[in-house]
Amino acid sequence: MFFKLKSYLKFLLKSTNQHGVHSPFVFAFVTKCLYSKRKWRHKKTIKVLLKSIDYFDFRSIKLDDPSLKEIIQHVNPKIMFASNKVDILYTKGLSKKRFDQLLSEQILHNNSMILIDGIHSNQKKEELWEDLIQIPNITVSIDMFHCGALFIRKEQVKEHFTIRI
C-alpha cells in the first residue's frame, strides 16, 4: 500500500494535462480521446481501452483478459479478436522479451498500441514499465498512472508523457 501511495505522489509531481504536451499526435489523443465526454461505468483502464478503440477506429485486438470481450463487443461490435496482426494489445503485464517476440512475429505493426493495466500497482510492474519505455521501437509512451499506453510509430521521435486522466 505504501508503495502505491509513494508512486502516486511521484506521478502527481511529474504529470501534466494537455497543456504540457507538444506532440500533435499525443495532444490530439489526449484532448479528443482521453478527455472526451464519453462515459462508461468501468475502471479507468477499461475506459481508456474503449475510448482508444473508438478514437483510432481499431479493427483488431488481442486481450490477456477474456472477460473483457463482451464489454468491448457491446461498445464496438465491429472489432475482431485476433491473435495474428493486431491494432491494439491489452495486457496486465508485458516483458521486454514478450514485446520482442510479438514484434518479430509481426503481431504488432507500425501504429499498434499496447495498453498495460496497473503499471504502478507494485514495484515489479513499475520496473517492467520503465524497461519497456526504453525500447527503441516504442516511440511514444504515456503514463496515466492506472495504465500505460505504448505506441509503435516509426515516423515519430521517441517521447514519454505523464498525463493525468
Secondary-structure map with pairings?
Elements: H1 2-14, H2 24-34, H3 44-56, E1 60-63, H4 69-75, E2 80-81, E3 88-91, H5 96-104, E4 113-117, H6 123-132, E5 140-143, E6 147-151, E7 159-162
Parallel strand pairs: 1-2, 1-3, 3-4, 5-7
Antiparallel strand pairs: 4-6, 5-6
Task: Give an overview of the whole structure.
- By secondary structure, the protein is an alpha/beta fold.
- It has a single domain, classed as Rossmann fold.
- Helices cover 38% and strands 17% of the residues.
- The chain has helices at 2-14, 24-34, 44-56, 69-75, 96-104, 123-132, and strands spanning 60-63, 80-81, 88-91, 113-117, 140-143, 147-151, 159-162.
- It has a seven-stranded mixed sheet with strand order 2-1-3-4-6-5-7, with helices on one face.
- Helix 5 (96-104) links the parallel strand 3 and strand 4 (113-117).
- The chain is globular and about 40 Å long.
- The model has no long low-confidence stretch (mean pLDDT 93).
In short:
The chain has 165 residues and is an alpha/beta fold.
